[in-house]
Amino acid sequence: MPTAASSSSDIAEITARILLEIEAVLFRPDEPFIFTSGRASPVYVDCRKIISYPRARAQLMDFACDTIQRQAGYESIDCIAGGETAGIPFAAWIAERLGLPMLYVRKKPKGFGRDAQIEGYLPEGSRVLLVEDLATDGGSKLNFVEAIRKAGAEISHTFVIFHYGIFPQGVAALAEKGVKLHALATWWDALAAAENSGYLSPSQVEEVRSFLQDPESWSAAHGGKESGDEDRTSGT
């Protein structure tokens, strides 16, 4: 397994293989998924499955810490914030490994008591790393970033296990807010792993590649909408 000196490409390749092995990434070009956003897709990722595989998650969390320290800095973060809800376990494991305080951010204030949107102790001026499981077009990240800054903290980095890597407007929107997105792997990495392992037939590889190159048009041509918010399968 890669060490802390491994390249980002090594980490991306092995992350994709792990996600494929535990069936956290799925390919269904012949029967597209329909997300709650209305978008049709031949691919689906469920990073929440990682929590049930101790060896896989330990390796991915090691990769996460390596990536965060290498790309964000070794002394540039004061605490780790998990986004409700899928980001919370990953934030906890990363905070434990880095020896940093952990908190979590609600999607909206809870509406009673302290009406808190951030749970945990967050000193004013703290430099926060936001952690979530995945990023599609980055919409949910902006809400969490706003909440963290409203609480008086600073945020310049967000980390996800998996980034779709096909909606550049999401990265641009975060960049406009002064936030850089870091991830272990993208759909391009997952497709390469699936192709190299023989998981997909040549025709299925081409169908998925067609989606990745132009997801909006592919969705419209397969019964889905052309755009939407963060993607989850219908009913989840």
Write the layout of secondary structure elements.
Blueprint: H1 8-21, E1 25-27, E2 33-34, E3 40-41, E4 43-45, H2 54-72, E5 79-83, H3 87-98, E6 102-105, E7 118-119, E8 127-135, H4 139-150, E9 154-163, H5 168-176, E10 180-186, H6 187-197, H7 202-213, H8 215-221
Parallel strand pairs: 5-6, 5-8, 8-9, 9-10
Antiparallel strand pairs: 1-4, 2-3, 6-7
Helix pairs in contact: 1-2, 1-6, 2-3, 6-7, 7-8
Written account of the structure:
With 236 residues, the chain is of the alpha/beta class. Helices cover 41% and strands 20% of the residues. It contains eight helices and ten strands. The chain has helices at residues 8-21, 54-72, 87-98, 139-150, 168-176, 187-197, 202-213, 215-221; strands at residues 25-27, 33-34, 40-41, 43-45, 79-83, 102-105, 118-119, 127-135, 154-163, 180-186. The strands form three sheets. Strands 7-6-5-8-9-10 form a six-stranded mixed sheet, sandwiched between helices. Strand 8 (127-135), helix 4 (139-150) and strand 9 form a beta-alpha-beta unit. The two termini are 33 Å apart. The model is unreliable at 1-5 (pLDDT under 50).
What brief labels describe this structure?
disordered N terminus; two-stranded antiparallel ribbon; 10 strands; globular; alpha/beta; 236 residues; six-stranded mixed β-sheet; single chain
